[in-house]
Amino acid sequence: MKSIQNAAVLLARIFVGAWFLPSGIEKIGQYAGTVGYMASNGVPGSLLPLAIATEIICGALLLVGWKTRPFALLLAGYTLLTVLLFHLHPANAVEKIIQMAELVDAGGLLVLFAHGAGDWSLDGLLARRHAPKTVSAAG
């Protein structure tokens, strides 16, 4: 059962990281358009570098599973903020779907925050490496 749980957490981290990492990179390539989209929603374009850094750094760290809990919580907050700033009052069905998808993303991130990266992660490897060694009594 533990292997199934570790595989599920690994897949969750891959899915989340594979969503945010390319999204942050895409924002670099479409910088002017993204600034325009932000401005049309009343959000200063000067926040775009912070958004890019959040998506790229947190996405990459979730992929490898390093400091998963704090970075998952940060990304969950970031995701909820994007709902509030860009998708709070969906004007059409597509926007409503985006809003719900963002909320699902935040929920998954909160689960990663609550349960951590699992054994198949850099966090898990470091925990095993720093775990106290038990000495068995020779009898």
How would you characterize this protein structure?
The protein is mainly α. It has one domain (2-130). Helices cover 76% and strands 0% of the residues. The chain is built from six helices and no strands. The chain starts with a helix and ends in a 9-residue tail after the last helix.
Number of helices: 6
Question: How far do the termini sit from each other?
Answer: 33 Å
Give me the count of strands.
Answer: 0
| H/E element order | HHHHHH
How many domains make up the coordinates? 1
Largest sheet data: none
Mean pLDDT: 93
Structural class: mainly alpha
List the helices and strands and how they pair.
Elements: H1 2-29, H2 31-40, H3 48-64, H4 68-86, H5 93-115, H6 122-130
Helix pairs in contact: 1-3, 1-5, 3-4, 4-5
Which short descriptors sum up this protein?
mainly alpha; 76% helix
Short description:
With 139 residues, the chain is an all-alpha fold. The protein is built from six helices and no strands.
